[in-house]
Amino acid sequence: MNRLSPSRATRWVIGxxxxxxxxxxxxxxxxxxxxxxxxxxxxxxxxxxFDPAASAAIKPIWxxxxxxxxxxxxxxxxxxxxxxxxxxxxxxxxxxLKPFFEFMVLLPISIPAIVLVVGLxxxxxxxxxxxxxxxxxxxxxYGITVLPFAFRSIQASIDAADLRTLAEAAxxxxxxxxxxxxxxxxxxxxxxxxxxxxISVAVVLGEFTIASLLxxxxxxxxxxxxxxxxxxxxxxxTLLALLFCFLLLLIIGRAARGNRKARS
Length: 264
Hints:
single chain, membrane, cell inner membrane, transmembrane helix, 0% strand, mainly alpha, MetI-like fold, transport, cell membrane
């Protein structure tokens, strides 16, 4: 086993290459926003985001960001309140349906977004007539697109925990099924739920095709609109969005470590 494991130097080289792969584009984008043509530095482009005089030019970005955050919250609720309980139910009560359920949940990842929009267009025509054409309705489509990613995160935690034994023990003590799911099973798959939530937020903030073709204003579509007038503001907001996702990742990692300490 030791012969097959990479040396410390090899691990450092691989880590540096992977780190450079992610760091170089981010550093280049940051330098693009602060460097002047004469080689000087300025942060006026960053402070201009909060300048009332320049607020009109970047107002679509703030509007799109607000819409995307609302969509992220609704999409996370879909994952936590619909997908996760259904996965628990399938694993505990209907294990024979697990292969079919997994196939159906993973199917959206094999369908191109533009093809998905063609199928969703008639559905959204009816949704617009009944629920309106608000941007929040995109959460139904986003809930479908995040299914494969959220499923893998939650299923990994389910496989690591013996849900059947925990559920049977809780039921034998008189706990109802809502109590079993919320107070017994959910804490044991918390890491998977948090990871699925993070992935859902990242997908929503980065999605463009569905929102553009369905004519909804979200963060990514607003960046394209503002980029035609100001190339620096979209780059700055992109960095801020990545920073936001990174902070969420740190919070999830800390929560997961806290969960492991509690178990130990």
